[in-house]
C-alpha cells in the first residue's frame, strides 16, 4: 500500500493522478525557470501526496544537484528508482540523475553503471542518448586516468 499523508487522504487528492501530473509539471516548470526554492516546495508536496510517485523524488534530486549536493541527490534519486509507479521513462531519468549525482561525488565507476542502467531502462527514450554520451565520456576519462600513456 502506498504511504499517503493523512491530509491528502482526507481531501481525496491521491485518487486523482492528474493532480500528481500537474504538480510534477508545475515543479519542473519552476525548476527550469531557476526558481529552485519554489520548485522544491512543489516536489516536497508531491512526495507527501504520493510517496510512490517518482517524479517528486526525481525533482528533489535535481534540486539537490543544482545545489551541488551529490550525496542528497543520489539518496533522493535512489528513493525515486524504488517507487512502484515507475515508467520506463522515469526509471531511465532517475538512473541518469543518479549517475550525475555519483559523478559529482567522484564515484565515476558507479556513475558509468547508472548511465548504463538509464540506457537499458528505456533504450529509445529521451534520456538514453544523454546517458549514452555521459557513459562514454565518463568511461573514456576513467580509461585515460587508469591507463596513462
Poorly predicted spans: none
What's the mean pLDDT score?
87
What name does CATH use for the topology?
Serine Threonine Protein Phosphatase 5, Tetratricopeptide repeat
For the terminal residues, how far apart are their CA atoms? 55 Å
What's the CATH H-level homologous superfamily? Tetratricopeptide repeat domain
Question: What Rg is obtained from the alpha carbons, in whole angstroms?
Answer: 16 Å
Number of domains: 1
SSE sequence, one letter per element: HHHHHHHH
Broad CATH class: Mainly Alpha
CATH architectural label: Alpha Horseshoe
From the spread of the alpha carbons, the general shape counts as: elongated
What is the number of beta strands?
0
Structural write-up:
This protein is mainly alpha-helical and 149 residues long. It has one domain: Alpha Horseshoe (Serine Threonine Protein Phosphatase 5, Tetratricopeptide repeat). It is built from 8 helices and no strands. The protein has helices spanning 6-11, 17-32, 36-49, 54-66, 70-81, 88-104, 108-121, 126-146. Helix 2 (17-32) packs parallel to helix 4 (54-66), helix 4 (54-66) packs antiparallel against helix 5 and helix 4 packs parallel to helix 6. It is elongated. The model has no long low-confidence stretch (mean pLDDT 87).
